[in-house]
Amino acid sequence: MFTGIITEVGKVKSVIRKGYSARLEITCVKTGEGLDPGDSVAVNGVCLSIVDRKENLFFDVVGNTLDKTVLKRLKAGDAVNLESPLKLGDTLSGHMVSGHVDGERVVKGSREASGGWVLDVGILPGDEKYLVARCSVAVDGVSLTVGELYRGFFRIFLIPHTLDNTTLKSKRPGDHVNVEFDMMAKYAGKNGQKGSVTMDMLAEKGFM
Question: How do residues 122-178 score in pLDDT, each as one tens digit?
Fold first, then answer.
């Protein structure tokens, strides 16, 4: 389990393709501290298991994960958002992020704004039921708040701290990003039609 608060930005040292899977070697400073093979790390929001730890961290990525995420697009030299797993008793500064990405979405707009940056992320039909203004969403593993929802995309406003400590400032129209919708929003989207849980009810109770 993760929070969407990035530990550090790492760098891809190598990508070795093996049939339908791949092995990633990632250079980092803080993320691997106290972790061993078998422990989880979020790489651009994707929960991966450390398979080897030397000077760098090594991860095996199966074909299904490559198909559904931006990890298939990584190459040596690319920067990636890294997050260490949440430990019992840690402060939950972002929101609950599982590391099970819902899919890739395309950046529609990226521009500087007063005091920060605006990022527009495209959505697919059916995504709308997981999104309302001021709900949480993870983009490339970063916990963010939906600022505005439009037909075909949602808009997020990035503060300077986020720009300085993640890869999001480098995103340009046409780039792909991993998106994980808020777990409570997905639960509401699945069950709301039965009247048991709705987006309005979650917002009223303070969950969103």
Answer: 999 999 989 988 999 999 999 999 999 999 999 999 999 999 999 999 999 999 999
The pair of three-digit structure tokens given for residue 21, joined into one six-digit string: 């899977």
- Of 3.40.30.10, 2.60.120.10, 2.40.30.20, 3.30.565.10, the CATH number of 8-83 is 2.40.30.20
The reported pTM is: 0.88
**Contacts for 107-112 with beta carbons within 8 Å, 24 or more apart?**
107/171, 107/172, 107/173, 107/174, 107/175, 107/176, 107/177, 108/152, 108/153, 108/173, 109/153, 109/173, 110/171, 110/172, 110/173
What residues contact residue 58 under an 8 Å CB cut-off, 6+ apart?
23, 24, 25, 26, 50, 51, 52
Confidence of residue 115 (pLDDT cuts 50, 70, 90): confident
List the CATH code of the domain at 103-204.
Answer: 2.40.30.20
Nearest Cα residue to 169 out of 184, 157, 185: 157
Domain borders along the chain are: 8-83, 103-204
